[in-house]
Amino acid sequence: MQTIEKTEPKLVELKTRLAEINDLEAAASLLYWDQATYMPPGGAEARGRQLATLQQISHSKFTESAIGQLLEDLRPYEASLSYDSDEASLIRITRRKYERAVRVPANFMAEFSKHRTEAYGAWARARPANNFAAVQPYLEKTLDLSRELANFFPEYDHIADPLIDFADYGMKASFLRSLFANLRQQLVPIVEAITSQTPIDDSCLHQVYPEAQQLKFTLKAIEQLGYDFQRGRQDQTHHPFMINFSTGDVRITTRVYENDLDQALFSSIHEMGHALYEQGINPELEGTPLAGGTSAGIHESQSRLWENLVGRSLGFWKFFYPQLQAFFPTQLGNIGLETFYRAINKVKRSLIRTDADEVTYNLHVMIRFDLELQMLEGRLEIRDLPEAWNERYRSDLGIVPENDSDGVLQDVHWYTGQIGGMFQCYTLGNLMSAQIFEAALAAHPEILVNIEQGQFSTLHNWLKENIYQHGCKYTAAELIGSVTGTQLHIAPFIRYIRQKYGQLYSL
Ligand code: ZN
After folding, report:
1. pTM of the full predicted structure?
2. Could you list the active site residues?
């Protein structure tokens, strides 16, 4: 990059401006991390204001016309570079983000952001009180604002497209609709076949597991998996997340339930999967818009790959289970590996998405995705949402929530974000994780044996080489194409589910 900095002063200026914006965003992220982990409740009001101020400054710096001018002036230079050079990618991705950012007026952004804060507050009170009526007017306004947001991009085919595009660039409602319809058609009979059998006994996970020991074990496991504690740390929050301030500081959080071993274990591995992606980005991209995951779906594919395809596999526990038993000798000393493995892979019809198993999880996601489209299309009124929700749970999962707290009020997404584009990433992530893992095994069939031996570096290095290092230089579609040799499709995920659960449940 040295030589380019000498030869192209406009690029140097662009990078300097972007680095400043990146610093402001990192400062905001750190304020957010602190808010979610250690901030005393008394700090809440001022913290909200401080975050809004920083976000507003960085947004206005990024949308300055000077940035647009630099991007314009750099067109000939960009055309002289190869598509996947760092420099051309930096200009291309920055332009994409800039063109999107300048189309949404600042006063609209501020109005939406203020509304989200209020909607979140209303939801936080309404969920424990099982009071959908209390959030209904907020959701109605959210739907109006979501439509307004989409309409700043009037060239769309479907009104959800611009909203999907924010999280999963290049994805369209029409493509997702048919992808998901195929998936649903395959999954529903598998769920039927499994749930007609005797349920797996998972009581071994629901003994008393002291918090400190659980935390110690998760730290040991994620270190062995490849999480770099020199460039990260793990803390506790109610809702686990990953956050980064630079490629040198990528943090995760987890949650511990003393009567549910599953929670901390798999939350930690899930968030670590997100973190390995960010820790694996080429440090030369630091401080630029390229230093981040390329889409929500690809990001989720990395967390799910480590959590499920690795972390819930029998091979993984052949290695880790004796260590887990040593941590919890009274709870697990007499429980065999097979019993434990079956318990962590129990499939059941359930109401809560975040607790759902691998087989039913996507059904939960697709319900939300379809409802979002119906609301945006004007075919579903907010007041009819709880009934529509319950009806879909009845038809897809064969189970109906007894109250809205366990139904339509369970996810925070519509109350902190918009309606549209909030859920597809989870199913995309599951599908991509299976497709990517197949490609990794094709390149290195020894990965499965390595996992049994507690050796994760072959897989980790392959992911770093093929996915992590690039940050967001390539789109999700480009990455999937180059890594797996074909476009995104459902077959690898279905193969994986059939093979694994075929053995667990004799399908
Ligand atoms: Zn995730």
Report:
1. 0.96
2. 271
